[in-house]
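Reminder to self: tokens first, then the designed residues, so the page reads top to bottom the way the pipeline ran.
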């Protein structure tokens, strides 16, 4: 099991010497709620360790990373948000980027979108071949989108645009629908044409 992604939330609270925070922080509460809900949905299944700290009692920690305005969220020691309610998309992208570094795609996976004819083609090819797979719609599932992009870039290069579908079979990167078709053909045994007569000894009278 891979190590969990470590998140630290610094909320507007705490004390330092004679100073104490007495004013509640609505954006801190909202950020905590966004974290909880995102963990249960887009980031469900990814091990995450969240630590919540009072900013005034630990102000020097985020300051070392160049951040001072609570609420502050750090992912693996990197500041991803400060001074406002957390952007859900930023959270998902930041966590997925870290998770991609320590997790390998397994099994048969297709990333696509509903309006893509090549995605429809790829799924039909797999269905006809009797190959089970897990399908992720990258338009509806932001976690799948952020997972797909760095995985694909590792194979095609950082400057090459990423299109769909993107396919993995048995953990092996295949690519798009045309590559899938070639992959399937290479694994299909050649059939003997119907008009070829077998003259082996067992058929000779």
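Designed residues (205 positions):
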């Amino acid at each position: 099991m891979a190590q969990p992604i470590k998140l630290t939330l610094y909320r507007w609270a705490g004390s330092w010497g004679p100073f104490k925070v007495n004013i509640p922080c609505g954006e801190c509460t909202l950020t905590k709620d966004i974290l909880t809900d995102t963990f249960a949905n887009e980031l469900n299944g990814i091990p995450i360790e969240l630590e919540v700290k009072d900013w005034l009692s630990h102000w020097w920690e985020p300051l070392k990373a160049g951040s001072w305005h609570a609420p502050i969220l750090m992912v693996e020691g990197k500041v991803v948000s400060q001074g406002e309610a957390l952007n859900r998309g930023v959270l998902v992208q930041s966590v997925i980027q870290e998770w991609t570094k320590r997790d390998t795609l397994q099994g048969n996976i297709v990333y696509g979108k509903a309006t893509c004819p090549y995605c429809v083609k790829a799924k039909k090819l797999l269905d006809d071949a009797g190959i089970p797979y897990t399908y992720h719609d990258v338009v509806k599932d932001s976690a799948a989108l952020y997972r797909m992009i760095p995985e694909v870039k590792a194979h095609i290069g950082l400057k090459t645009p990423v299109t769909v579908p993107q396919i993995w079979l048995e953990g092996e990167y295949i690519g798009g629908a045309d590559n899938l078709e070639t992959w399937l053909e290479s694994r299909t045994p050649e059939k003997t044409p119907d008009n070829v007569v077998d003259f082996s000894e067992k058929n000779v009278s």
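The chain has a mean pLDDT of 92.
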